[in-house]
Queue: 3 jobs
Job 1
Amino acid sequence: MKVLIADDDQISRKVVRALLVKWGFEAVEAADGDQAWQILQEDDAPRLVLADWMMPGMDGPELCRCLREKSESSYHYIILLTSRDSKEDIVDGLNAGADDYITKPFMPQELEVRLRIGARILELQQSLQEALELQRYQAQHDPLTGILNHGEILRILEQELERSCRQNSDLAIIMGDLDHFKKVNDTYGHVAGDAVLVEVAQRIKNNIRLYDAAGRYGGEEFLLVLPGCSEEEALQIGRRILNNIEQQAIKFQDNNIAVTISLGLTCFKTGEQTNVSSLVQQADNALYKAKQNGRNRMEIY
């Protein structure tokens, strides 16, 4: 783990650096508080900081305050090094945002123990952050296909509808449903059916724009939200999806499974009074029309 040593005394920095290297840490040096602050703005900056109280420019407590005021997800564990040992100074240092406080001269063993504690806390914080990110991802994505789930795609649709109303911009919605999907499950099994859903979801993602959203609406149904997309542009996207799914069978074990999809398109018109439920219903009605007219096609509401 990287440790930033912020101290204007070059000899002190060299002594601490030698100890850090001996204990298995990677040392990064700063000759004053301003340089330390610049280093801490870099990508992959040290998150464990040893800062001297008295430094030119930004002193140790000020460095602590600036780091705590900075809005970011990564936490810095800060240990203040100083010859000040009064209770008032300790309180001031901790109030400034320091996590720990060591008075000079210090015992190397004490510094090592406190650094190990800081490293352990940072590792726990990183594990917690990763767990929260995983939970957030799982709450938003369909566990089978990896695209957005029912709730999240509707939330995005609501968000984009509000934006379109506010900015008088285009918004298109496509509802898709695999044709005769029950036959796939009955013929090849449900594991094959799952593989088909995963592949179709991936092909849909590959044929929409980066800022479009695709979600699994339910079962073998997919909902696409296309912000800033005119009817003609949405038709082009729909045709790409239709062709890509129809023209290449999906391979599962020794089987080539032919699959097609039907699509229903609706577009939000500027000034129109509508809501998410109405738009989804319109796209669903257009999808139903595509099914009635022979499947493997796209219809417009």
Job 2
Amino acid sequence: MTAVLSPLAARYATADVVIPPEPDGVTRAMPIVLRLERPPAPRTPVLEAAAAAALALCLDPRAEPGGEWHDGVTTWVASRIRKIARRARGAHWEAVQELPGVTWSVDLGRGADGSDLGTAEARALLPGPVDDVPRAVSRLQIGGTDLDPDDPGPPPPGMPVIWVNAGLHMTVGKAAAQVGHASMLYAAAHGLTEVPAFAVRDAGPDRWAELTAAVERGEAVPVRDGGFTEVAPGTTTCIAR
């Protein structure tokens, strides 16, 4: 396991999560920028890109000891792994490519006519104080746009799946932050040093009950939300398996 993620494995091993406060009193977050052009990519691949981007930043060599990102990432991981998703397109999307971070793309495949459908993209930026973000980020909207539910079909065999609690009806921004938590926790629990291809799928009541039982058996990794937005503190938003 990468040293950056090692604190997460023990912290989220049980339901009685005790998250230490920020050591210097500064609230930090990882900005995740979702590329939502007109028309936007479908919801599921956007979330898959967000999940992978968040983990990719943590596993980047620049986040390892001696790397230029190490102090910023480890200070953030040591407290709450808070994330704030924003949306961008066009010139605003290009502007955030100049900031320290990692962009992840998910191939959308081809249409019925054989045309290339392009990619879904998200960029995870270096975590920092929530009240001191670069202008290129602060001007991006956090809410105001959502993506319609899509039908991606069953996840490919053998691929880790991040299941989103469909009963919560989270916005795409909230869900993007939660799947980013899930990818990091899954990697910490399984000792990953590389980013796998994650599938993201919604879980209805029956599936969610099965996943909750798997968490109790130690066979799946839950995300329990801090309750800052949309859901109550301690709500399980995602389960990775």
Job 3
Amino acid sequence: MSTFRSDLLKGKTAFVSGASSGINLHIATRFALAGARVTIMSRSPEKIEAAAAGIRAGGGDAIGIAQDVRDHEGVGAALQKAVDEFGAFDILVSGAAGNFVAPFNKISYNGFRAVVDIDLIGTYNVLRQGFAHLRRPGASVINISAGQSFTPYPYQAHVNAAKAGVDMLTRTLAIEWGGLGVRVNSIVPGPIADTEGMARLAPDAETAAKTARRIPLGRFGTKDEIADLALFLSSPAASFITGTLAVRWSDQGAWIEILAMKMSR
């Protein structure tokens, strides 16, 4: 059950990239259930249409567009298609991400570039191409980041670099776009249960339990909690919040431990 009233985003329009599954799809679904008309984008035609159909089956108004976030012109075309369908965006979420575990000396050029292209350049593409379609003043832009943006995790050099860039974009655009009435914030989820990321990093019950014990609340977060955070940042209650990194607490030691265990296998 959401903390917020069911019609909170009635009449609003949202665009969410990287939303065929996981946290981003949960955010898009929550927006739709709160009354927003939602466009979701991801590169797999089958997955994104299935995700949009799922939102519609739950009573939401949504379309899915298949597009690789790394394609600058393609992202622009996807955004235009969404505007043609639903109108200008009140909410723009950049959430596409890539990751794998490897020491820096084992990360190939193509591997490093792929993560930077998806996470950082992909965010640039969505925000740069999306700006012209934002309803101003009043629009909310949200970037989905990670703890690697400010804590240097071993075996994550590529993600550390990419997410640090994403969060610096957040801070910079909060300044540049603030005078236009556009708010820009990052969500840093931390360890979230039932996501692909945690399935890769903590694939067995023992590792997951050991990691959870290092988190002050003694558990992983939920996709519902992140979706409610995104809903809050897009609501009138957050109308004076911009340039922030909305961080769910995660213990650095837990992440370093889980990565070290992963590499030792």
